[in-house]
Write a structure and sequence with these properties.
The structure holds 2 protein chains of 2 kinds. Chain A is mostly beta strands. In chain A, β8 and β9 form a beta hairpin. In chain A, strands 2, 5, 6, 10, 11 and 12 form a 6-stranded mixed sheet that branches. In chain A, strands 3-9-8-7 form a 4-stranded antiparallel sheet, with no helix packed on it. A two-stranded antiparallel ribbon of chain A has the order 1-4. Chain A has no helices and 12 strands. Chain B is mainly beta. Chain B contains no helices and 11 strands. In chain B, strands 2, 4, 5, 6, 9, 10 and 11 form a 7-stranded mixed sheet that branches. In chain B, strands 1-3-8-7 form a 4-stranded antiparallel sheet, with no helix packed on it. The chains are: A mainly beta, B mainly beta. At the A-B interface, β5, β6, β10 and β11 of A face β4, β5, β9 and β10 of B.
Chain lengths: 113, 113
């Protein structure tokens, strides 16, 4: 069985500050991990994915995430927040051969000027 | 390359009716997955189709069904609509397995009155 926990349903940062969105996972098989972003009234856009090639994964828009097996974590970071980063972020896990994604409950990121 | 397209984008139906939603995947993608997004339940997996076969299914009642055609386009059908079926329905496409990215469409917003 697989599951994802996102700590903090709402995170607020100042423009230019570090963004840290937390994700912990549980998986009985080697996981594939993803971060998606959703802007209002839109679908999900893939930020980055972990597929065991490298533990530090770089994505689009300056985001990156580090896979830590010992902590079962896959936290998303960005060194300097921009106003355009305000959106909802979802961590997701899957494993095995199918594309069934198990999503976390999402974190709504607000960026203050 | 064109992205995932979903039609219609918005739909209003009455309780008890049925509805069919359509998803056209990215060219070359053979896997299509469907998700339901609601404020209360978040993002939940409905089912995945690969090469016209249902490969995985979520925990939804039998009123929810889907199919995939030989050109990989997919439809999902909801019969006997209930108020709780009001949601954003998202479709995602991928080449094959989780080592490949899943790309999401913009979704169909279904409102049941």
């Amino acid at each position: 069985a697989q599951s994802v926990t996102q700590l903090g349903s709402h995170v607020s940062v100042s423009e230019g500050a570090l963004v840290l969105l937390r994700c912990n996972y549980s998986s009985s098989v080697p996981p594939y991990l993803f971060w998606y972003v959703q802007y209002p009234n839109q679908g999900l856009q893939l930020l980055l994915k972990y597929t065991s090639a490298a533990t530090l994964v770089k994505g689009i828009n300056g985001f990156e995430a580090e896979f830590k097996k010992s902590e079962t974590s896959f936290h998303l970071t960005k060194p300097s927040a921009h106003m355009s980063d305000a959106a909802e972020y979802f961590c997701a896990v899957t494993g095995g051969a199918t594309n069934k994604l198990i999503f976390g409950t999402g974190t709504l990121l607000a960026v203050q000027p | 390359k064109a992205g995932v397209t979903q039609t219609p984008r918005y739909l209003i139906k009455t309780r008890g009716q049925q509805v069919t939603l359509s998803c056209s995947p990215i060219s070359g993608h053979r896997s299509v997955s469907w998700y339901q997004q609601t404020p209360g339940q978040g993002l939940q997996f409905l089912f995945e189709y690969f090469s016209e076969t249902q490969r995985n299914k979520g925990n939804f009642p039998g009123r929810f069904s889907g199919r995939q055609f030989s050109n990989s386009r997919s439809e999902m059908n909801v019969s006997t609509l209930e108020l709780g079926d009001s949601a954003l329905y998202l479709c995602a496409s991928s080449y094959r397995d989780p080592s490949y990215e899943q790309y999401f469409g913009p979704g169909t917003r279904l409102t049941v009155t």
